[in-house]
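Re-run with default settings, no changes from the original entry. Doing this only to confirm the output is reproducible before filing.
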Amino acid sequence: HNLARQAPAAAAAPAPSAVAVMARSTLPSVLLLALGACALLHLAAPAAFVAAPSSALRGAVVAEQTKTAATGAALGGAAAGLLTSAPAHAFGMLYDEVIPYAGATSFAIMWGIVLGFVLLRLQEAFPE
């Protein structure tokens, strides 16, 4: 008598909800569908928008690109050494430009904070 009552309770373990089962089962299929679409696009699409150059021209192009790259690296190195900017304190720029602009910017920010508090007090003084 007691065993008959306990058997259905033991068999009635908490089953996962239908929503959880559906959510678990759709994720792999969506991922597989996306992977299949990517593979289809990869196989169906051409490798490049333009045709590859012929092999006769390829050697000349590679040699020219190597020469251009070496020249560009040499010019870039020279430009980096010659065109570096001077430090801010080198020609009086620190006292002529940096400090006045920093002071003006700091003053403008602080004045904006003061005006913000003034407007806040005005809004509290005259409610709508």
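The chain has a mean pLDDT of 74. DSSP finds four helices and no strands in the chain.
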